[in-house]
Amino acid sequence: MSATLTQMIANYLDGSRLIRQAVHGLNREQLLARPIAGKWSTLEVVSHLADFEPILAERMKRVLAEDRPTLLSADENRFASALAYHERNLEEELALIEHTRSQMARILRTLPLEALQRVGVHSERGPRTLEQLLTGAADHIPHHVQFIHEKRKALGLPA
Prior knowledge:
The chain is built from six helices and three strands; from the N terminus they run αααβααββα. The protein has helices at residues 3-23, 28-32, 42-65, 76-82, 90-108, 130-154; strands at 70-71, 119-122, 126-129. Helix 1 runs antiparallel to helix 5 (90-108), helix 1 runs parallel beside helix 6 (130-154) and helix 3 runs antiparallel to helix 6 (130-154).
């Protein structure tokens, strides 16, 4: 395995630590609060991440297992409105993220570098390489963690 792929996997795995760190010390009331008008609560953000982890992993798995598979899009707002995000358990959501990433990392570690160029065709965005999918998945949690930090600040809590 190349140093590049090793670093990509490390970045991907680090998301679990980042999200746990971002929500550390929050009580249920703080998790459910919407201190920024029109934005999701922290629990909604975590639930979104937990719902999309298996989707992102499935896309990578299909690219590895199939030739130019179709990768279906998913509407995050429809998920949020239909899937009881405020009824979710924070620990379950975090565990799902961690287990999904751990399993996917185990698979990725077995790959030769050239596997990063395998392609799937996203139903809305067109062709995507495994490298693009892995980079996108690795960036997903840090992207959303910044919103959690904003919520913490709006609640008067340290980020």
